Amino acid sequence: MATEAKVESNSKTFVGPANQTMVESPGTWSQRLRHLLAGLNRSTQFILLAALIMGLSMAFVGSLVSQQIRLAAAHSAGEGAAIYMEAYLDEYVQELATASTLKPESVQAIDDLMKETSLKQHVLSIKIWLPDGRNVYSTSKLPVFYYHPAGPIAAAMQGKVVTRLSPLDHDEHAYERSFGRPLYETYVPLREFGSGKIIAIGEFYEMEHEIGS
């Protein structure tokens, strides 16, 4: 009789727990915030969200109000500076009532203003424009005939004083950019004696801190 031999292997394979390291993803800021809020009751969630919204709103309004105050101060200072500039420049632009260029002696006189008077303590650069946008004077002596600030000149021709923080983004601003600081530019109507007719536009640049002082 055949004897069946049952052979049982004594070798056993043990599968132990894997030696794995669980790495928790830090998650995004919004995910962490949602997780934090999920553990709070609804009243607390509402209070925190309301405080967050109020804080952001106050920051936005504060920034907006600060900007408006700054612009208002710049405009007010620009109007005051317009009177100041007219007192200096009107005398030297009267010939523009009948001519399209300044005489060499008038150019020299304006140059001297920038060197020898208190004007140089406030004003870094002066440009004078004809009503049609042609440039007839520039402190820098750099050519600026290929560009004219049409918008501000049009407003100044209506008797308005225009003050703005200059972007200094045109080639004609090379001299003003050399100061390496934000500059305000102000456009002032210059008038003919007697008639009051606007015959030119004076443009001048001041450092930002000068406007607010």
Question: What does this protein structure show overall?
Answer:
This protein is an alpha+beta fold and 213 residues long. The chain contains 6 helices and 5 strands; from the N terminus they run αααββαβαββα. The protein has helices at residues 29-38, 42-89, 104-116, 150-157, 174-177, 208-212, and strands at residues 125-129, 135-138, 162-165, 183-191, 198-207. The chain has a 5-stranded antiparallel beta sheet with strand order 2-1-5-4-3. A hairpin with a 5-residue loop joins strand 1 (125-129) and strand 2. The longest helix has 48 residues, at 42-89. The radius of gyration is 36 Å and the shape is elongated. 23% of the residues are buried. Mean pLDDT is 74; it is low at 1-26.
Which key phrases capture this entry?
6 helices; single chain; elongated; 213 residues
In short:
Helix content is 41%, strand content 15%. With 213 residues, the protein is an alpha+beta fold.
Through-space gap between termini: 121 Å
> Largest sheet, order of strands side by side?
2-1-5-4-3
Tell me the overall shape: elongated
Total strand count, please?
5
